[in-house]
Amino acid sequence: EMGPKELVLSKKYEKKQSLKCCTFGASSLQERHLATGDFSGKMETWDLEKGDMPVYSVKAHSEIVNCIDGVGGLGIGVGAPEIATGSRDGSVKVWDVRQEND
Questions:
Q1: pTM of the predicted model, to two decimals?
Q2: Long-range pairs, 54-60, Cβ under 8 A, ≥24
Q3: How many Cα atoms occupy the beta-carbon half-sphere of 40 within 13 Å?
Q4: pLDDT tens profile 10-62
């Protein structure tokens, strides 16, 4: 959030596990979701209005999630729901976050 002369922190969330990467491309601007990847290989999607529990969580990789990206409707309203993750385990995976968690 921008104040008159400075950047103002609007929200702060903390997790027990360190995060490696994240993207706001996880959803449309109206949904305000953030997708994160961590050092244990987990990918999670968070509702920025609630923040306490992920709306989607999966053990995405056997090693660190090095990169994560999504479309989320950038500039066109609503885009593809898929999120792509890449890992040190040598794989790139595409996730459909509309699916139920296991």
A1: 0.79
A2: 55/97, 56/95, 56/97, 56/101, 57/101, 58/95, 58/101, 58/102, 60/85, 60/87, 60/93, 60/95
A3: 10
A4: 777 787 888 899 888 777 667 778 899 999 999 998 888 887 888 889 999 99
Distance CA 79, CA 87 (A): 24
**97: amino acid identity, one letter:** V
Distances (CA, A) of 95 to 3, 18, 23: 36, 21, 14
Report the chain's C-alpha Rg in angstroms.
14
> In degrees rounded to 5, what are phi and psi of residue 27?
-165, 180
Element (DSSP H or E) covering residue 91: none
